[in-house]
Amino acid sequence: MADYDVIIIGAGPGGIAAAYGLLAKGAKVAIVEENLWGGTCPNRGCDPKKILYASVEAIENGQYLQHHGLTGELKVDWSALMDNKRQYTSKIPTGTKQGLDHANIATLSGHAQFLTDNQLQVGDQVVTATDYIIATGQRPAILPIEGKEYFQTSTDFLDLDELPKSVTFVGAGYVAFELATIANAAGSDVHIIHHNDWPLKEFDQSLVQELVAQMKARGIKFDFNVDLTSIQKDDDQYVLKDDQHFSLRTDAVFSTAGRIPNIDTMGLENVGVGTLKKGVQVNHRLRTDNAHIYALGDVIARVGNEPKLTPVASFEGRYLANLLTSESNRPIEYPLIPSVVYAAPKIARIGVSPTVGKGDPDDYVVKDLDLTNWFTYFRLGEPVAKARVVLDKQTNTIVGAQVLSSKADELINYLTTVINEHQTVDEVQAEIFAYPTVASDLPYLF
Ligand SMILES: Cc1cc2nc3c(=O)[nH]c(=O)nc-3n(C[C@H](O)[C@H](O)[C@H](O)COP(=O)(O)OP(=O)(O)OC[C@H]3O[C@@H](n4cnc5c(N)ncnc54)[C@H](O)[C@@H]3O)c2cc1C
Ligand SMILES: NC(=O)c1ccc[n+]([C@@H]2O[C@H](COP(=O)([O-])OP(=O)(O)OC[C@H]3O[C@@H](n4cnc5c(N)ncnc54)[C@H](O)[C@@H]3O)[C@@H](O)[C@H]2O)c1
After folding, report:
1. Average pLDDT of 131-149?
2. Using one digit for the tens of pLDDT, what is the confidence trace for 107-119?
3. What ligand 1 atom has the least distance to the C-alpha of 311?
4. Which residue's alpha carbon is nearest to atom 42 within ligand 2?
5. Topology, domain 4-140+260-323
6. Maximum CA extent, the chain
7. Ligand 2 pocket, 341 CB below 6 A?
8. Whose CA is nearest to atom 8 of ligand 2?
9. How many C-beta atoms lie closer than 10 Å to residue 335's C-beta?
10. Is the pTM of this model over 0.90?
11. Where does the chain bind FAD (predicted)?
């Protein structure tokens, strides 16, 4: 007899969604965590970032209205802002664990590692289950260059007591764009170094270049086509170099060149679970090579390459809860998934984008819209607001969109519903939305 029906390894958004889902179906569940209960998103990811970003939004909106009836300068007080963030994050681990304990989900603290015969070692105890779910997430990748010990990570940035006078991010992806935007709004001198000239590679480059221009106008410096090779410490500063002529002095340097799955010290080889560079190898039912071990969230190499995001991990948690309680044996089917980069302005995307190689251009009509003079953006004094929508010629439905504006997150969510519900242009135009809002702009996008 196993100790539990299911043991989940990792108490992030994915593992927790699976735990509560399984509990609701009557399963006996345990969840293991070696670090902060709640995982990356609420402790060192999405939520703390978005708390710091609240000030960016206020400053951005204030700056846009400077010549349109608003006076006075808003400034960030970093230590008060950090206090506000800590008021939120400090309660997450205990609150999450208490919630699980009260629900009667067994909570085991420690590093989990598989032994042979499907047993799991957690600290100095060995536990067993009929099925296991690996939900161990990812950690920041540290670029393997000379002086790599001087790199800090996004986790460090989101908990800085003081903001350095100058900061540099190496690798121009989601994390760099977002943290650079926060540091810049808070008054730091910000550099982003990237090894090619194609940042945020999943997004339409015409909109990305517009975003880069907006960030440059705010004082953020981009160093493209620089392959950093060394970091040297010089008093309280760091000197960054490539093997050509690039040299930059900075107060703090952050490795933002991607994240790596937490798979290396889990004894996966003992239980025959295969891995790829992007994570644990799973099939269309999120099952690994071992019939009793499943995996979800950031730690997996997804068959369809869906993005590694919080709502995707929770979706998979709910899916596995149903699958493991035999309610459904269907393979997982993802809806189209939106993603947003919280820069200033925001950039967002969903679905088909012929310009980044997805879909045959002949099947679609691509509409580029300049929204700057639309009432929503005129009212806010935004200098740039743009959208690119992709329509399927045959069905007259919208199948993809990319948006750049301070309202890109709201607009992409409305478009997510329109796209996933396969609404036609006529159906969208038949709705009555509250006016004037981002939603009431929808019918004019087609
Ligand atoms: C700076 C930053 C900003 C982000 N912003 C957003 C955003 O705005 N929107 C969004 O959707 N996503 C965002 N993300 C991504 C999001 O945080 C992840 O997609 C999400 O947390 C994945 O959930 P998960 O449950 O798969 O893994 P995680 O949340 O990483 O949880 C995994 C847990 O497993 C634990 N663990 C690992 N190994 C073991 C082991 N051997 N034994 C026991 N426990 C173990 C870890 O300690 C961790 O708590 C952001 C990420 C970062 C870093
Ligand atoms: N708003 C959000 O939803 C959000 C925010 C932050 C993070 N995330 C999640 O976390 C993941 C990781 O974010 P990230 O920004 O760390 O990774 P990323 O994959 O988005 O970007 C990393 C970038 O670093 C570049 N790079 C790689 N090697 C390099 C080198 N040697 N020198 C310079 N640049 C190099 C890559 O080309 C890439 O553009 C995201 O893909 C996403 O899944 C999401």
Report:
1. 98
2. 999 999 999 888 9
3. 11
4. 308
5. FAD/NAD(P)-binding domain (3.50.50)
6. 72
7. yes
8. 174
9. 13
10. yes
11. 50, 298
| Angle formed by the axes of helices 46-64 and 78-89, nearest 10° | 140
Pick the CATH number of 148-257 from 3.40.1390.10, 3.50.50.60, 3.20.20.150, 3.20.20.70: 3.50.50.60
Q: Is the CB of 313 under 6 A from ligand 1?
A: yes
CATH number, domain 345-444:
3.30.390.30
**How does pLDDT run across 189-236, given as a tens digit for each residue?**
999 999 999 999 999 999 999 999 999 999 999 999 999 999 999 999
Ligand lying nearest the CA atom of residue 114: 1
- The minimum-distance atom of ligand 1 relative to the CA of 154 is 1
Residue nearest to ligand 1 atom 13, measured at CA: 46
Res. 40: pLDDT tops 80: yes
Q: Is the pLDDT of residue 359 over 70?
A: no
- CA of 371 from ligand 2 middle (Å) equals 28
Instruction: Give me the long-range contacts of 290-293 (CB less than 8 A, separation at least 24).
Output: 290/118, 292/118, 292/130, 292/131, 292/132, 293/114, 293/118, 293/131, 293/132, 293/133, 293/134
| 12 band by pLDDT with thresholds 50, 70 and 90 | very high
Domain boundaries, the chain: 4-140+260-323, 148-257, 345-444
For 128-139, what is each residue's pLDDT tens digit? 999 999 999 999
What's the ipTM? 0.98
**Range scoring the smallest mean pLDDT among 13-22, 95-104, 351-360:** 351-360
The reply to whether ligand 1 has any atom less than 6 angstroms from the CB of 111 is: yes
Q: What distance lies between CA 303 and its chain's CA centroid?
A: 19
Residue 194 corresponds to which tokens in the numbers above? 């990237």
